[in-house]
Specification:
about 250 residues, alpha/beta, UDP N-Acetylglucosamine Acyltransferase, domain 1, five-stranded parallel β-sheet, globular
């Protein structure tokens, strides 16, 4: 009797989902992916009339979602309700496949843990070897650009818009940029218009209101430069920003 091969089964699952994503996904493709992930069956009329939270945000009036974008957003969020989200050989490739079709740009070897949320994937640009840890929220309405080998820690919050204090409906959008080899540690908050410099470090819990210089470490609320990063002469790839071990999580 042949023993079950979990690696082959998970690999087949990812390949089948990739084929569907390559064709859209449209309504029926989304249904098939949900079925492959073991999600409960839902009425076709539900998917036909699907509207996600971001459909009701102000920027959607100027940048309406295509059906394809809406289904990709839905699949990103729905996946976290699937038991497959707990299997990293499925979860990491799945999120990467969706990101490559939804983000403005998604570089190679992108890794995202669960419960990461963003509101307009088409305004998010991510370089190579980027890692999002669990529970982060990225408000992309004003545009977010993340450079190569950046690590985003657990429950980081990035905002790109502010409201007028006198008229709440008046909003100002300002992009956030995080340069190559920067690290943003757990619970930090980055406010609109900020640029995090190359190889900079944002300490856990920091509230970043102004630009962060290259190779600096900032901490506090509001964040202030406390010292230079201790690189010991290393730069770029020599900093060894390897977020997880295991070649199985590299791009094919």
């Amino acid at each position: 009797m042949n023993k079950p091969n979990p690696d082959k089964a998970q690999g087949d699952l990812i390949r089948n989902i990739r084929l569907i994503l390559d064709q859209g996904p449209d309504l029926h493709g989304t249904e098939r992916i949900l079925s492959l992930l073991g999600c409960p069956a839902i009425e076709e009329s539900f998917l036909a009339g699907l509207r996600i939270y971001s459909d009701f945000l102000p920027r959607a009036a100027d940048h309406p979602f295509s059906p394809r974008q809406r289904y990709l957003h839905f699949l990103w969020d729905a996946f976290d309700r699937s038991l497959f989200s707990l299997s990293m050989p499925v979860a990491f490739p799945f999120r990467r496949m969706v990101a490559k079709r939804l983000f403005r740009r998604c570089g190679k070897n992108f890794i995202s843990e669960g419960e990461v949320r963003f509101n307009f994937g088409q305004f998010l640009s991510v370089g190579d070897d980027v890692f999002f840890n669990r529970g982060s929220f990225i408000d992309t309405k004003g545009g977010v650009t993340i450079g190569d080998a950046v690590g985003i820690g657990e429950f980081v919050r990035i905002f790109t818009h502010v409201h007028s204090e006198s008229i709440h409906s008046v909003r100002t959008y300002s992009p956030v940029t995080i340069m190559e080899y920067a690290k943003v540690f757990s619970g930090a908050m980055i406010l609109p218009g900020v640029t995090i410099g190359r190889q900079a470090i944002v300490a856990g819990g920091a509230v970043v209101t102004t630009d962060v210089p290259d190779n600096s470490v900032v901490a506090g609320a509001p964040a202030r430069v406390i010292r230079e990063r201790r690189t010991e002469g290393r730069t770029g790839t020599d900093l060894d920003h390897v977020w997880l071990h295991g070649g199985a999580f590299q791009d094919e």
